[in-house]
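for the writeup, i need someone to sanity check this before i put it in the appendix. the sequnce is what the collaborator sent (i think, or maybe the updated version? ugh). structure was predicted straight from it, no edits. if anything looks off just tell me and ill rerun, i have time this weekend
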Amino acid sequence: MANTAFTNTLESEVLNSTLRGAGFTAKGGTALFLAFLTNSTNDGTIAELAAGGSYTGTGRPAFSGTAGQQFSTGAGTNVASANGAPLVNAQAITFTATATHTGIVGIAICTSSTVGSSLETFGIYYGDLTGGSVTLTAGQSITFAAGAISVSLD
């Protein structure tokens, strides 16, 4: 069977359902969290930044905004995807390292704040960082500006 793409309508339905909580079997519409990945974001080898104080506070950083409005078609807005438009983080999200972390290569959007929880169960989307690996020292922050995290289906 040849590879087939999602139709624009179906792509928007999936994005809205998973990130905004609208549609058929919504996973979104709840608080969403950012996990940091330390190896290739390949389905067979995905791994999260180690637990045990690695993240600021008690868990993964939370996306800002009302549940279901954390992702939009534009920064600072509350617009659902239509015609296959990608969704982006509506507000900035910041992570401050509490230890030195070498080799952060990707991120995942999750429905659980628990560090180390199964990404197959709680991860919705994941991908590589543009520009390659990032190293953060203790106290150093990384901020993803509003609109910087773009989610589409491929």
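DSSP finds two helices and ten strands in the chain. The beta strands are 33-37, 71-72, 87-89, 93-96, 101-104, 106-110, 123-128, 134-136, 141-144, 150-151.
thx in advance!!
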